[in-house]
Write a structure and sequence with these properties.
Largest sheet of chain C: 3 strands, antiparallel
Largest sheet of chain D: none
Oligomer: heterotetramer
Distance between the termini of chain C: 46 Å
Low-confidence stretches of chain C: none
Helix content of chain C: over 70%
Low-confidence stretches of chain D: none
Number of helices of chain D: 11
Shape of chain C: elongated
Strand content of chain C: under 5%
Number of domains of chain D: 1
Chains: A alpha/beta, B alpha+beta, C mainly alpha, D mainly alpha
Mean pLDDT of chain C: 86
Shape of chain D: globular
Strand content of chain D: under 5%
Radius of gyration of chain C: 33 Å
Largest interface: C-D, 77 and 85 residues
Number of strands of chain C: 6
Distance between the termini of chain D: 50 Å
Number of helices of chain C: 40
Mean pLDDT of chain D: 88
Radius of gyration of chain D: 19 Å
Chain lengths: 213, 186, 1036, 309
């Protein structure tokens, strides 16, 4: 009796990947993301200290806000002094900056890239558009609230926010990380079905697995 | 250019010509003449380049206007070909045999306006909107605000101001009195 | 004891009576006809037996009751009876072959045939010049008439051309006879002496001899003969080509004693020219009978040349050389002509219909191999002795012309053979005719009989040297068994053979014995995967393996060379079994033969060996002359695929069957290495003044680098491995060429290592091919998940190839660089470094393209390679691991082997090996590596946290997800940028060179072919001009 | 007992080298930043990065070879280092140099590269093999001048043994290979540029074209191991160069000797850093061609000069 239950649970833990054609399902993992508890208190504090001082950005400009990242890197504002560096692959990055408005087409890519990042991972939503749609609030293809689709740790308002505002945002994120308040990864895993429902509601041609490992 | 138009006039009846600028003309042609006119302009009148193709929704006339924008490198003149088609039965002949890259424009217009181009390659594939299920969004009877409200979980508490009034009030109410900032290049 | 005169009488009588007998019934006339022919054979056979075994003195028959020179006399001795026996035999069997035709045709053709046979007999026996003329005319007239036997327009015109040429020749003959009588007052050749002819008189001899020579169809005055060969019915043409030629050749032999030496030399050279050019022209020929015509003319030229050149040799050599060529020509040519009658297709590519009948195919093979001078057939021995003779008499131009001609012969014969065995069957299959097959098979038996006689009686080879051939015969008998049984039997046979030859006289033999025999035995396991019967496979495989073994125990040059040829032919036949192997195997055969000819000459130059010990030992005390070293080195380097002569290698490796490739690469190439080492052994004590091995070393080094680059640019897994073998053998060749202690230790170490890892790699690729059915690496990918065992094999092997510590490859690298640097070959060492760095390119390419990256849809359900492939792989892996962890296992014995020849230059202390430059401790390296591997692994396991296993498409991407595994797998043209960087150096120059060489030869042949216009008058003009030219050259 | 002490020594030696290697990387980043006119990250940033990567909660693995790839890489770095004597005459920093000579070290460098290439290959991402193909090709090209330089040095000292080579350079600064055999040193230093993968030879990682190249799929602890190895491996290479060409590090006082080692390796590294900071990147085929032309010619000259003059 118990064994059967276990099997059922195991089956539930698998993702259906219904968006994929039958023959492609073997090519993608069907594992469901699960919650990973933090380490014990002091160890977690230590690693959070290190995480906060070594923020690796995903170099993926999702909108017009990405223009603001260039001056950040170069000599005028130089974020590398805070231990912030760009990383070309989501596998290695820990911070995802949503650079402004996100269209339906872009949110699909955002979700993919976010899921491909390895936890703990942080999201900075940049610009008004990510908060409530900004000037594109009534567009047919710009989403209004990014936090319905991925968990967001810090918002930076403005259209566009200046690099100084970005640096302030980074500092805010750092503080939150050190305090251990940034747990978007587990939030996403816990509310996975809700996020997926929202995502699937607007992304109509779902030709990818349910979770992009 | 006059000669070209004259020659064109000889070819077809009731040609409507609008001169916008010295280097920009529009002519209005019938749907069934489009293929002939485009070919003629490309092969005989040297309008070799197709800049773009565009559609406008004249919902009042129950018509779509399609514009093929041509360019002649020798006399350096843009010539727009306007074709009016019926909005109810929105369909146009595919011109991709004249300019192969037209298929891409036609695909976009198909997606955005729901105008059909039978025979155009890959016209049914989605272009920007991946998996769009509603009415084509650029049709003017499509209510984007309603759609956005329905779909995108608008965040409550949003307020809107008239930019001009708001700016005057907030920032520049004594703008006229403020000293002028000289810029280097002035 | 019937007097041979009755042959003439009876043939003539029955010949004329036939038309009367035929009035009653054709059956009677046929009975009489065949009766006479059989009678002839029996009479001559009886005489031959008496002459040979009973020592009966030569028989002289005087006619009309007078003694010669007053009367015409006939003579029958050993030589005459030998020639007559075979001509009559062929005559009889040709008649049997023609049975159907004779049954239906006009009776006159039977009459003509009998008269022809009579003419031949008379021509051979008579000693009188005028009588010769008479018989010659009889022969010619009957031949003209028989030529038009087919009654086609072509054969009629051919007969007419023949007549024109024949009449021209006999005019000269008659003039010659008249003049001779004028000068000597005598027509009996026994009473004519060369001294009787003064300056003016020699013109008489010239006219006589040139007439006979024209009848022997010298190049280029032989267009008429070619047309005859092409047009006439195949039964008749065999008589013309073989029986007539034999008689006329004997005629030439008879008058040889009265000809002055300068005549003979010119004729000999003309014969060589005929041989060379006929074979060259045959290159371009596609029609079987015309091709055979060219070949017969060439062979007759060779016979004339060998008659002339052997004039001063000991009797038994003359018999072997001339007799060997004669028998060879007789049998194979008649056999092939008859086969053409059976096949009934003109074009040689249509001969693949022979595949419908196994015994005919075997016969075809026998005749073709015999004609090509492949052992054990008579032609091989004749050629070997002729080469020796020519070398000793310093006739090097004639020698090279003959060998070049033979090479052309090999090319067109084997092209024919491979086309027959491999091309797609399109032509209609004829009905097999019993009478024709009977005659043809009889010849096959004779060929084998002679081969056995020469091997056993003349040379007295022991059984072990005949073993390779016996293996083929035995397996052929049990070919009905399933292949697994045969495979197991072969494995046992190889082991038993190894046990039999085991007690070796030296360690170096033991070493190569392990490579050849043990390596082969393990490799055989992989062939056990074969299903069905694999007809013929195990026979040739055993032949090859036994040949390997015989190489190391060969005690003289001939044994070595014979075995070498066995090895070549068996490996050729094995390669030919591949599906698309026609071109590849042909190329292999051509290059191998060229190498073999060079070796043959090289051995001929080498001094005689004393004693009865194996070559590896006895050569140490022999000083090889420089020319011999050069020729032998080139010969062996061709076999080991050195730069410049390597182009056969990738083709042969790639196109051979999957489980054969490993034999070729891992073991066959080592035969070349062994050969080179033999030369090196003599080189140690007697280095020539010109340091030829220095250049051999450079070639080896360049082979290594070029092979590595070529391997990096391949898409085909087996070609990649083939080029890799070329590269690795380049290292070995270079190391041998150093002729130093460390050099040889490293060469042997590398040879052993290469045997193991390349076997493992080829078998692994064979297993993958078995599952995926493709050799293109980019069509695979991601197989690590499905074939983990094969992956481990390839992984370990490529580490061993690359020389990355701690595996055995590093030992090789360490030894070789230390050897090079301490030997002062600095730049060569630099090139080798480059080669070894480039080798990473292809090694990564093969493992990545096959095992890593994206798994394809069609391979999702693929299984691990069959167990028969896995077992040998892991045996080799075990070997690699053993000598990696304990390098002493191999370094110590190799050190000892090399110490036979040099003082030791390394010191072994525990597990440490010290050279004068540096040191290496394989054991410590192994331990440190293990430690350095395990510690990070533990750290990783400790720190890694939760690990999520994902699938192949879970890779990072943002905009578009991967489309399909095919487009996501990076494997095709992986090093395009390197090719770009190499620019002009990346062009296949060597391939282009050989390609254009072949094109030029063929174009040249085509150009020369145009002299044969097909016009009878032109042909007569050719003859006249030829006579004039010869006249001027001889300076009569 | 002896073995335990040896292992202990090895651990100390490895720790020193790793820390020094990582610090060097930090310094280099700082210098790069200053060249760009930035402040740059702190010198200890590499250590923070390593902790951060190791503290990822989930690691994605594509299979066993992928898992082992970084291990191979690190083992390669460890092995390379362990067969080089760091300080002349020191037991602690002598490492396992009795295992073999400079040939062993040269080939052990490949160990890690090959293993990493295999692991990255199993990741299945198309950029990995592209990067590896470039890397292997470039390696085969820069190996040529380097090996020629090594041969030249071997001829010069008639030894391949690193300790012997260092010994021969003692006494005066003029005994350094740098001065006795300058051509070989030039050839080797140019190939060091390729080895370190700084611009103009940074075609392997090339973040703009093939994002980060081979380790594109590496994440979490895998990446952490790779980062650690980068420090150790850099140190090992520099120490090898120091030993072969710059007189090695020898002093009775081990701390002074370590200091000498650090100074020398720092300057050797700075050479490639300054070249890297001031040049743009080559295209792959330009890079290969470059190595096969001038440095190779210099290497050949070095051999000819030493062997025949």
């Amino acid at each position: 009796m118990e064994k059967k239950d276990l099997n059922e649970i195991e089956k539930e833990m698998k993702l259906a990947n219904e968006g994929l054609p039958e023959k492609e399902r073997i090519l993608f993992s069907d594992a469901r993301p699960s919650r990973v508890e933090p380490l014990n208190k002091y160890l977690e504090q230590f690693v959070n200290w290190a995480r906060a001082r070594s923020l690796w950005l995903l170099a993926f400009g999702t909108g017009c806000g990405a223009t603001e990242l260039r001056p950040l890197m170069t000599s005028r504002f130089d974020v590398s002094r805070f231990g912030i560096a760009g990383r070309p692959t989501p596998r290695q990055a820990s911070v995802f900056i949503i650079g402004g408005y996100a269209s339906i087409k872009t949110i699909k890519r955002i979700v993919r890239s976010y899921e491909q990042m390895q936890g703990p991972k942080y999201v900075i939503a940049l610009g008004s558009c990510t908060i409530n749609g900004g000037m594109y609030y009534d567009s047919y293809n710009t989403i209004n609230r990014i936090d319905y689709y991925i968990p967001v740790d810090t918002y930076i308002a403005g259209c566009m926010p200046r690099p100084e505002a970005l640096i302030a945002g980074f500092n805010r994120l750092k503080e939150k990380i050190q305090k251990g308040e940034c747990d978007g990864m587990n939030k996403y895993a816990d509310n996975f079905d809700w996020y997926k429902k929202n995502q699937k509601q607007i992304i109509k041609d779902w030709n990818m697995p349910d979770y992009n490992w | 250019m006059k000669n070209i138009l004259k020659r064109l006039n000889e070819k077809i009846d009731d040609l409507v010509v609008v001169k916008q600028r010295d280097d920009l003309y529009f002519i209005k042609v019938k749907r069934e003449h489009t293929d002939f006119i485009l070919r003629y302009l490309k092969l005989d009148e040297n309008f070799k380049h197709l800049d773009f193709m565009q559609a406008v929704d004249y919902i009042e006339n129950n018509q779509f206007q399609l514009t093929y924008m041509l360019y002649n490198y020798e006399i350096k003149i843009n010539l727009g070909i306007n074709v009016m088609i019926d909005r109810e039965k929105a369909e146009m002949d595919s011109m991709h045999r004249i300019w192969p890259h037209l298929w891409q424009y036609q695909r976009e217009i198909h997606e955005m306006y729901g105008i059909n181009f039978p025979g155009s390659p890959r016209v049914d594939e989605s272009f920007v909107l991946e998996g769009w299920e509603e009415m084509p969004p650029m049709r003017r009877d499509f209510d984007t605000l309603e759609y956005s409200k329905r779909t995108f979980y608008p965040r409550p508490g949003r307020s809107t101001n008239d930019p001009k009034e708001y700016m005057k009030e907030k920032l520049y109410h004594d703008f006229a009195k403020s000293p002028k900032i000289r810029r280097d290049d002035e | 004891m019937v007097s041979p005169i009755y042959i003439l009488i009876l043939s003539l009588a029955i010949g004329f009576l036939l038309s009367v007998i035929d009035k009653t019934n054709r059956k009677f006339s046929l009975t009489a006809f065949y009766g006479v022919l059989t009678f002839n054979v029996l009479v001559i056979a009886d005489w031959f037996y008496r002459f040979l075994f009973l020592g009966v003195p030569t028989l002289t028959i005087n006619t009309a009751g007078f003694r010669a020179p007053v009367s015409i006399n006939l003579q029958l001795g050993v030589q005459e009876s030998f020639v007559l026996l075979f001509t009559n035999l062929i005559g009889l069997f040709a008649a049997i072959f023609l049975y159907k035709k004779f049954k239906e045709s006009n009776i006159s053709s039977l009459t003509l045939y009998l008269i022809l046979i009579m003419g031949v007999n008379g021509l051979v026996m008579t000693r009188d010049l005028f009588n010769m003329y008479v018989f010659l005319e009889i022969l010619s007239i009957s031949t003209y008439s028989l030529t038009s036997f087919g009654k086609t327009g072509k054969s009629l015109s051919a007969g007419f051309k023949y007549m024109l040429a024949g009449v021209t020749a006999s005019t000269f003959f008659l003039l010659g006879v008249v003049f001779i009588y004028y000068f000597s007052g005598n027509l009996n050749i026994d009473f004519i002496q060369a001294s009787q002819f003064t300056n003016y008189g020699s013109i008489a001899l010239f006219l006589l001899s040139i007439a006979i020579f024209i009848e022997l169809k010298p190049f280029p005055a032989n267009g008429w003969a070619l047309d005859v060969y092409e047009a006439v019915d195949s039964g008749i043409v065999s008589v013309i080509a073989v029986v007539n030629s034999a008689a006329i050749l004997f005629l030439f032999y008879k008058i040889m004693p009265i000809l002055p030496e300068r005549f003979l030399n010119v004729f000999g050279i003309a014969g060589v020219i005929t041989f060379l050019f006929s074979n060259m022209l045959a290159l371009k020929q596609k029609k079987a009978k015309r091709l055979l015509g060219y070949s017969s003319i060439g062979q007759v030229g060779l016979l004339v040349a060998s008659l002339v050149f052997t004039a001063n040799a000991p009797q038994h050599l003359i018999y072997l050389i001339v007799g060997g060529f004669f028998i060879n020509h007789l049998i194979s040519k008649a056999g092939l002509f008859w086969l053409s009658g059976i096949v009934k297709h003109e074009n040689i590519s249509d001969w693949n219909v022979l595949r419908g009948n196994r015994s005919l195919l075997i016969l075809f093979g026998i005749f073709l191999f015999a004609l090509a001078g492949i052992p054990p057939f008579a032609g091989f021995w004749a050629k070997w002795e002729l080469v020796k003779l020519l070398v000793h008499s310093k006739m090097l131009f004639a020698l090279s012309a003959i060998l070049l001609g033979s090479l052309f012969e090999i090319i067109f014969l084997f092209r024919w053979f491979t086309l027959t065995v491999k091309s797609d069957i399109a032509a209609t299959i004829p009905r097999w005719d019993a009478s024709k097959i009977f005659s043809t098979s009889f010849l096959g038996v004779i060929a084998i009989f002679f081969a056995a006689m020469i091997m056993k009686v003349y040379y007295g080879f022991s059984l072990i040297h005949i073993l390779p051939v016996l293996a083929v015969l035995v397996i052929d008998i049990i070919d009905f068994l399933p292949s697994k049984v045969k495979g197991l039997l072969s494995l046992l046979a190889v082991l038993a053979y190894g046990y039999y030859i085991y007690p070796f006289e030296s360690n170096i033999q033991l070493f190569f014995g392990i490579i050849f025999i043990v390596g082969s035995a393990v490799n055989i396991i992989s062939t056990l995967n074969r299903t069905g019967k694999s007809e013929g496979f195990y026979g040739f495989l055993l032949m090859m393996i036994f040949s390997f073994g015989n190489l190391i125990i060969a005690t003289n040059y001939l044994e070595f060379f014979l075995t070498w040829e066995f090895m070549t032919i068996s490996s050729f036949l094995l390669i030919l079994r591949g599906k698309q192997a026609q071109k590849a195997s042909l190329m292999y055969m051509i290059f191998s033969t060229a190498g073999a000819y060079l070796m043959m000459v090289g051995f001929a130059f080498a001094p005689q060996l004393m004693g009865n010990s194996p070559l590896v030992i006895s050569l140490a005390n022999v000083q090889l002359p420089l020319i011999s070293i050069i020729l032998l080195s080139i010969g062996f380097m061709i076999k080991s695929g050195s730069l410049g002569v390597h182009i056969w290698l990738p083709e042969a490796h790639a196109e051979a069957e999957a489980d054969v490739s490993s034999f070729i690469s891992a073991i066959l190439l080592k035969a070349g290495v062994f050969g080179l080492l033999l030369v090196g052994i003599s080189y140690v004590k007697f280095a020539p003044s010109f340091d030829i091995f220095y250049w051999v070393g450079w070639i080896g080094v360049l082979t290594a680098i070029v092979g590595a680059f070529l391997a990096s640019f391949q898409e085909d897994a087996k070609r990649l491995l083939a080029y890799s073998s070329m590269s690795q053998v380049g290292y070995i060749v270079a190391a041998i060429a150093m002729v130093s202690h460390l050099g040889w230790v490293s060469a042997l170490y590398l040879a052993f290592n290469h045997m193991m890892f390349k076997s493992a790699l080829f078998i692994a690729v064979a297993g993958i091919y078995y599952r995926t059915h493709t050799r293109n690496m980019y069509e695979m990918g991601g197989l690590i998940k499905k074939m983990p065992l094969s992956y481990i094999t390839v992984l370990i092997s490529i580490i061993a190839v690359s020389g990355v510590p701690p595996l055995s490859g590093f030992g090789a690298k360490w030894l070789i660089y230390t050897a090079f640097i301490s030997n002062g070959w600095y730049l060569q060492a630099g090139v080798l470094f480059f080669a070894s760095a480039v080798s990473f390119l292809y090694l990564y390419r093969i493992i990545h393209s096959i095992f890593l990256g994206q798994l394809k849809y069609e391979h999702q359900d693929i299984k691990e390679a069959p167990v028969w492939f896995i077992i040998p792989q892991y045996i080799f892996l075990g070997g690699i691991m053993a000598i990696s962890a304990f390098p002493n296992l191999i370094i110590k014995p190799l050190n000892k082997i090399a110490m036979h020849y040099f003082g030791s230059s390394i010191r072994i202390d525990g597990y440490s090996i010290f050279s004068e430059l540096g040191h290496w401790d394989g054991h410590v390296v192994m331990l440190v590596t293990m430690g350095a591997f395990i510690v990070p692994l533990l750290i990783l396991l400790l720190l890694v946290g939760k690990t999520q296993k994902v699938k192949q498409f879970n890779i990072v991407y943002a905009a578009e997800r991967p489309e399909s595994p095919q487009t996501t797998h990076v494997a095709h043209n992986m090093y395009a940028h390197y090719r770009k960087a190499l620019g002009g150096w990346g062009k296949p120059r060597i391939w282009n060179f050989w390609h254009s060489a072949s094109e030029w030869t063929h174009s040249l042949a085509d150009y020369f072919r145009h002299i044969y216009t097909g016009n009878g008058q032109t042909y007569v003009l050719h003859i006249i001009l030829y006579v004039v030219v010869i006249y001027i050259v001889m300076g009569v | 007992m002896d073995i335990i002490i040896r292992i202990l020594y090895a651990v100390i030696s490895i720790l020193v080298a790793t820390v020094w290697g990582l610090t060097l990387t930090g310094i280099v980043r700082k210098i790069y930043a200053r060249v760009h006119g930035r402040f740059g990250p702190p010198v200890w940033q590499p250590f923070l990065d390593i902790i951060q990567t190791h503290s990822r909660r989930v690691a994605i693995s594509h299979g066993y070879m992928f898992f082992l790839g970084p291990v191979f890489r690190f083992a390669g770095g460890l092995g390379t280092y362990l067969f080089i004597p760091v300080i002349l005459g020191s037991t602690v920093f002598g490492n396992f140099s009795m295992g073999g000579d400079v040939l062993l070290v040269m080939y052990f460098i490949f160990f890690g590269q090959l293993g990493m290439a295999l692991g990255a290959g199993e990741g299945g991402h198309p950029y990995s093999p592209m990067g590896i193909a470039r890397g292997l090709s470039q390696m085969s090209a820069f190996e040529v001048p380097f090996s020629l330089a090594i041969i030249s040095v071997a001829i010069q000292y008639h030894s391949l043994n690193i300790t012997t080579i260092v010994q021969a350079q003692q006494g005066s600064i003029l005994n350094w290979t740098l001065f006795t055999n300058p051509l070989a040193v030039i050839a080797a230093m140019i190939s060091l540029l390729g080895m370190n993968g700084h611009a103009p030879f940074s075609i392997v990682m090339a973040p703009q074209e093939i994002p980060i190249g081979p380790p594109i799929e590496m994440n979490g602890s895998f990446l952490g191991i790779l980062q650690t190895n980068r420090g150790l491996f850099a140190a090992a290479k520099l120490i090898l160069f120091m030993n072969l060409f710059f007189g090695g590090a020898a002093h009775p006082n081990i701390l002074v000797a370590l200091l000498i080692m650090m100074i020398k390796t720092f300057f050797i590294y700075m050479f490639s850093v300054f070249v890297g900071a001031s040049f743009p990147r080559f295209r792959p085929e330009q890079s290969f061609r470059f190595f096969l032309k001038w440095p190779t010619a210099i290497g050949i000259l070095a051999i000819l000069y030493i062997a025949y003059l």
